[in-house]
Amino acid sequence: MLKVEKINKIFSDGSEALRDVSFEVSPGEFVLVAGSNGSGKTVLMNLIAGLDKPSSGKIRVSGEAGLVFQDADCQILGETPFEDVAFGVKNQGVKKTEISGKVLDALEQCGILHKKDAQARTLSGGEKRRLAVAGIIAMDRDLIIFDEPFANLDYPGVKNVCQILKQLKDKKKTVLVLTHETEKILGLCDRMIVLDKGQIRFDGTPEEGLKQNLEQWSIRNPLSKNEGLLWL
Predict the structure, then answer these.
(1) Residues 120, 75 contacting (CB under 8 angstroms)
(2) Each residue's pLDDT tens digit, 60-81
(3) Whole-angstrom Cα distance, residue 94 to residue 102?
(4) Per residue in 125-176, pLDDT tens?
(5) Is the separation of the CB atoms in 33 and 177 below 8 Å?
(6) What is the distance between the alpha carbons of residues 221 and 209, in angstroms, rounded to a whole number?
(7) How many Cα neighbours within 13 Å face the side chain of 157?
(8) CB neighbours of 83 closer than 8 A, spacing ≥ 6?
(9) Cys-Cys link to 108, which of 81, 113, 116, 118 (CB 3.0-4.6 A)?
(10) CA–CA separation, 30 vs 25, rounded Å?
């Protein structure tokens, strides 16, 4: 589904964002790319999605990738959720008689069918993220990439996003989640990749990943014990 081969990304000011990054994702695999802020996760996502080009190396995607950005507001193009999801489907050249069914089905899968005629900008953070996913589902993307899907969400919003992610996993969708909040999603993952300072430090099963010294890469181990109510 996805093959990343020896990717390097150097910006015009000489700063290095990614160095010799290589990995593969199989069809139906659910992969976590864990990394702290500034580790290169978003840069990697933009390269995979074709929004930017690597300085060197190759990226091969079988099919099309759909993105769910950290800022869900930037993905809203329609006045209502129905119009927003329909926008992408129309651009695919889908027959007019089929558009409504695809849109309604996607909204229902994401649990926001009852909001189909609401003002899209007034949705909660979690609902906006679900709306972004609905747009991707309606377009039937082969690979779905989430960039920090839990950013700025309250507890109900996090639960809603996790429910969507589980549904995608149950349907054998190929999913790539980039986040530093491993404790919220690791239980769904088939595989864990750690990105630190633009390099892959670990690539293996979640069970193997939890045995690593994740703190050295600025990632909190979900199994670590807190000191009282503080993360110390």
Answers:
(1) no
(2) 998 888 888 888 788 888 999 9
(3) 10
(4) 889 988 998 999 899 888 999 999 888 888 888 888 899 899 999 989 999 9
(5) yes
(6) 9
(7) 15
(8) 120
(9) 113
(10) 8
> Which pLDDT band holds residue 231 (cuts at 50, 70, 90)?
low
Q: For 77-98, write each residue's pLDDT tens digit.
A: 899 999 999 998 988 888 888 8
Check if the beta carbon of residue 179 is closer than 8 Å to that of residue 32.
yes
The residues, ordered by sequence, that sit 6+ positions from 180 with a Cβ below 8 Å of its Cβ are 34, 35, 36, 37, 39, 148, 218, 219
Distances (CA, A) of 134 to 35, 41, 86, 176, 203: 26, 23, 10, 16, 30
C-alpha separations of 31 from 53, 130, 218, 225 in Å:
22, 19, 19, 25
- DSSP for 52-91 reads S--SEEEEEESS-EEEE-SSGGGG--SSSHHHHHHHHHHH
CB burial of residue 219 (10 Å; 0-12, 13-18, 19+): buried
Tokens coding 53: 């080009």
**Residue 87 tokens, joined:** 């926008």
